[in-house]
């Protein structure tokens, strides 16, 4: 991505994030005007929606800064079907080797799930949720390959 495009996109995302933050703050300030005996659920839902949108944009900004592109710009090589095919092609054909690969994958999956539960900020949560999903898919593919050998 060219420097000018990168800067323009970063500015747009930063403005978007600050707009969601401003709207979230304005809605939060309206909470004090609601009497105690009335439900504030709709207002709280709006606040949470702006909070989620703000954090989604923040994740995009962090990804853009780290990778100089947005996550949607990912090419064909990271298509889930392509990745699945590459993973399956590289699986060993021996049941013993598959078992060893599974024994290595299961502790990593457990660690990723623990890290996901402990994650506090949305960026870290997104990172570990993607890692958990990937490892779960790998474990499922290994187990299905092992079943096919029976």
Automatic annotation (TrEMBL):
The name this protein goes by in its record: Uncharacterized protein
């Amino acid at each position: 991505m060219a420097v000018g495009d990168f800067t323009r996109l970063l500015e747009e995302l930063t403005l978007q994030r600050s707009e969601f933050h401003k709207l979230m703050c304005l809605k939060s300030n309206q909470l004090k005007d609601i009497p105690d005996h009335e439900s504030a659920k709709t207002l709280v839902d709006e606040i949470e929606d702006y909070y989620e949108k703000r954090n989604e944009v923040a994740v995009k900004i962090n990804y853009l800064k780290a990778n100089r592109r947005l996550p949607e710009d990912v090419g064909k090589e990271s298509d889930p079907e392509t990745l699945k095919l590459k993973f399956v092609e590289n699986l060993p054909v021996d049941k013993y080797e598959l078992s060893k690969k599974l024994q290595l994958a299961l502790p990593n999956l457990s660690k990723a799930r623990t890290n996901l539960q402990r994650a506090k900020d949305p960026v870290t949560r997104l990172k570990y949720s993607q890692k958990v999903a990937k490892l779960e898919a790998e474990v499922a593919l290994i187990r299905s390959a092992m079943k096919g050998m029976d």
